[in-house]
Amino acid sequence: MRYISTRGQAPALSFSAAVLAGLAPDGGLYVPESLPQLPADWQVKYRDLSFADLAAELVALFVDPSDIPHADLRRLALKSFGPHSRFAPGADVTPLHPLARAVPRASNDDPTTNAPHRTPLNIDILELFHGPTLAFKDVALQFLGNLFEYLLARSKSTKTVNVLGATSGDTGSAAIDGLRGKQGVRVCILHPHGKVSPVQEAQMTSVLDENVCNVAVDGTFDDCQALVKQLFSDPAARDEFQLAAVNSINFARILAQITYYVHSYLRLKDQHDQLVYSVPSGNFGDVLAGMYARAMGVPIAKLVIATNANDILHRFLHSGIYSPDPAWTPQGADATHVPAAATPTLSPAMDITVASNFERALLAWAPNGATDVRQWMEDLKNQGGFSVPASVVDQARQVFWSHRVPDHEIVDTIGRYYDACDYILDPHTAVGVRAAEQFGAGLFPRTTVPTGNVHFICLATAHPGKFGDAVHAGLRRSRRAQGVGSEEALDALFVPPVLQALKNVPRRVVRVQDGTAAEVARVLRSEWPMVEVQKAKL
Ligand SMILES: *Cc1c(COP(=O)(O)O)cnc(C)c1O
């Protein structure tokens, strides 16, 4: 199994080389040359497997045994997801939580324009937040951390690899947890000082392992990203620090995520004719794993791309135009466009302007393959956007439906589901649930409609305790929480002890004030831990 670049101008690599490379040298993303199919008897063969064993089976389909022996893959999967992993012990790695059936109409639904909800609306929540940092990124990054350690241990190099990344929240803490204490690798994560949520900041900076370094940059997330890019594009820095990346473009992350689609499908398939997955989406990594699962043979009826106000994917499915600027047209394209900034929302992990993994999906649909993708990505960079042929949008609509959810509906949805189901959604998950409602309401002019007994699986991408402010706003709308007076009493409803405990732990972080790559390089060069230890304040 070889891995090729979506832009077609980089040499093909083995799986392990593609994992270590991250981005291809032509700027593209690595994808398998052809997508493996599930074995003919998969529904029987996989039926009773644990999450760890299923992950091992699925990953093995993508990796030649001469590249990584499959027994080693099994050990890595067990270490990442088995009983001694960092997932909550005793439970499923990704448990399903069925919701009660009758959920009242949203307060802002207009009965004259919206078809009535198909009642009952059947939803299972697929909880992906039982990992150490309480967000779905743990599933991929626990596996990737172990895989990195394994690949570095068997390479002959004695140089320490520095995993360098920028984060606006969830990725940083999940990457740090995935790599903490690992041999041969250090992890250095830049975040904008004072601009990540207090919980996320505490999660990152309270990890005291010697191979972990947090850098707080005076600036924005984009400034952090620019610093990381600057170091990666400097050959001397790449060589001195042996830089590596674990961002969501790493194919191993997508691969690990396929597991929970297959796992949940097998749990629910007997009760339902048609399973529709609703996925809160930003960089398109999570829902791409669903697309691959479907293409490999899992009969998923539809994947709903649920976006917040940052709706580039939703607009693409509607118009075939891909641009951060909603007003962009091929006619009005010019070389002087200003890149749009993301709109801050209540679901910040989905606040993106472009969806970095989307070019992998585009490659699957492009009439001229990588040649098209390369041209489209050049147009995106130079013209501010691109428009695809109708055949591409048609193929996309076979697989996906999409919906955009504004902040006020996030708050409303959290309140309604607490009242009706006694279940507290995090704001990202609420976007997915709201999109599922709209799909269930029959609002699908842009798609082939599934027939029969439709059941929704809504991916819960974070624990509500990580996003307390939005959840408080939602609960304040509910009847059930009306008697709850203080903010602390409201917290007690949903903030788990592990997050409460973060309030009083020491943490370690280096502050970078002048915001230059040279200063970040100085941090990388320094002996760790050389950094200030301070008390967290939440
Ligand atoms: C990263 C993230 C998302 C978006 O996932 P993508 O793979 O980028 O589409 C959604 N919700 C939460 C909580 C996240 O951390």
From TrEMBL:
Modified residues (N6-(pyridoxal phosphate)lysine): 137
Pfam families per UniProt: PALP (PF00291), THR4_C (PF24857), Thr_synth_N (PF14821)
Enzyme class: lyase
PROSITE patterns: DEHYDRATASE_SER_THR (PS00165)
Tryptophan synthase beta chain-like PALP domain sequence ranges: 127-339
Cofactor(s), by name: pyridoxal 5'-phosphate
Keywords, sorted A to Z: Amino-acid biosynthesis, Lyase, Pyridoxal phosphate, Threonine biosynthesis
Family: Belongs to the threonine synthase family.
Official protein name in the record: threonine synthase
Organism: Allomyces macrogynus (strain ATCC 38327) (Allomyces javanicus var. macrogynus)
